[in-house]
Amino acid sequence: MTFGELVRGLPPLLASHLELTLVALVAACLVGVPLAIAVADRPRVAIPVIAAAGAIQTIPGLALLALMVPLVAETSGLGIGVSSFGFAPAVIALTLYAILPILRNAITGLGGVDAAVLEAARGMGLSPHQVLRDVQLPLAAPVIAAGIRTAAVWTVGTATLATPVGQACLGNYIFAGLQTRNWTMLLLGVAAAAALALALDAILGAAARALGTRAARGAPRSRRWWPAAAFVALVALVIGILPRVASTGGAAAPVAVADRSDRPATVRMRLGAKNFTEQYILAEVMRDRLARAGIEVEVAQSLGSTVAFDALRNGDIDAYVDYTGTIYINLMHRAPGVPRWQVLAEVDAWLAREHRIRGLGTLGFENAYALAMRRAQADRLGIRTIADLARPAPDLAIGGDYEWFGRGEWSAVRAAYHLRFARTATFDPTLLYEAVARGEVDVISAFSSDGRIAAHDLVTLGDPLDALPPYDAIILLGRTVADDPRVVCALAPLRESISIARMREANLMVDRATDKRSPAQAAAWLLEGVRDAPCTGEAR
């Protein structure tokens, strides 16, 4: 992806990021300021209220965002049917994060008003409401404004973490750039978030100064109103103008498909992609195929495994690629040791029966979890299989991605082979292979289709006890598109069309440090081996 393409893709994400930030900030103000007014003169109540808001701050941002997804889902969309994917959980989490500085500063500002001033106001016959409105709030306004400024900067930064729960934002560039080692993309996302935070802080700072001079006689009116004008201009530019200027057309040539059903044809779909390179590539593969069928496609990137499946089940996305072992172990809670054909059959049946999700078929390769080591170290220790690890494991360190040590596969492998490592370490998937190559850890949970295994001269260890299940890549279709002939015929040629060797090469195209390709370019290379065939949309 060229720099120009990256710049053109930035405005819609910037607009979405600003919308998310503003909604959360306004909501936090609507909660924090009235709450501060209610408890400011009641210290025994104010202390636990501030403590509760502070406790929320101790929860890591990504964890808080992830917790909101099941919360919204289990409450039937907060009782009003809002989606548990994307905007709603992100706004709730960011609002909770933004309350503390607003609440604390508002309580401090209101409590800091000189008692003599308040007594004089009451002596003039002002009612409690008038004292609050005409004396306390104006005098506390600069302190309250400072809290809102702090909340705004925090919210802009934390909002970049909304990508894994399906909300488009500048985090899309940051997460995707990190996973694909596209540092230009990552830096663009970081720079845009920093610029947005600085712009909001400058405008809110000017507004605070304007509030301070509001009562000053002779203060130019323009000085008092320009912050509001600047804010309106920023919102209009980022949300209204830039996305339209940057938008481009140009869809692939449609493929004619016979549609004999009476149901409305799908014209737009939302695809999901998990947070690693292969998923970005496969999402682009499906996007290309669907675009050729005349279907407009949006991709929600960098989703967590459970978030992606829940989004498909709830209709928030329409299709994505998952892996049979992930579904079998972590969603169906089955034990490993079952033949590949049986896993696939049981997964298909469970998806259709329990969730009305259609498994369209395997792509032709497996991306299995595997334990990998440096070849030289494995040879020196005489390790060929996971069973050979049991003896030296107490002196070795193992690294995994964000999910590995909490997944059923790790528990199964550890129990089957009686593994007890000296240390475990969690890495971003981008850094995992470099960590073992540099000796930071001795063993890692690798992905069998990752091209970096060969690039770093690693060796994958055999699994003689079949503690790890098969992980065939499988296309999943949500209930809204499962029976649509156009969708099925667009994606059906992908079945059994991608070998493990080609998938490894495509992944390496994106992950390598030199002569890099974008996920879209790697997808185009993969699609060179895909051939169309007659299709009615009914074939399995």
Describe this structure in words.
This protein is of the alpha/beta class. 57% of the residues lie in helices and 11% in strands. The protein has helices spanning 3-39, 43-57, 61-74, 77-81, 87-111, 115-123, 128-158, 171-179, 183-212, 221-246, 277-292, 305-313, 324-331, 340-355, 375-381, 408-417, 429-437, 452-455, 485-491, 500-511, 519-527, and strands at 268-274, 296-303, 319-323, 358-366, 369-374, 397-400, 423-426, 443-447, 458-460, 472-477. Helix 16 (408-417) links the parallel strand 6 and strand 7 (423-426). The longest helix has 37 residues, at 3-39. The protein starts with a helix and ends in a 13-residue tail after the last helix. Mean pLDDT is 86; it is low at 215-219 and 247-261.
Task: From the structure above, extract its key features.
5-stranded mixed β-sheet; single chain; globular; 11% strand; alpha/beta; 57% helix; 3-stranded antiparallel β-sheet; 10 strands
Give unreliable regions as ranges: 215-219, 247-261
Averaged pLDDT, please? 86
Q: From the alpha carbons, calculate the radius of gyration and give it in angstroms.
A: 27 Å
Look at the helices and sheets and give the structural class. alpha/beta
What percentage of amino acids are in beta strands? 5-15%
- What share of the residues lie within helices? 55-70%
Q: Distance between termini? A: 35 Å
Number of beta strands: 10
Strand order of the largest sheet: 7-6-8-5-9
Largest sheet geometry = 5 strands, mixed
3D shape? globular
- Quaternary state of the chains: single chain
Count helical runs: 21
In brief, what are we looking at here?
The chain is an alpha/beta fold and 540 residues long. It contains 21 helices and ten strands.
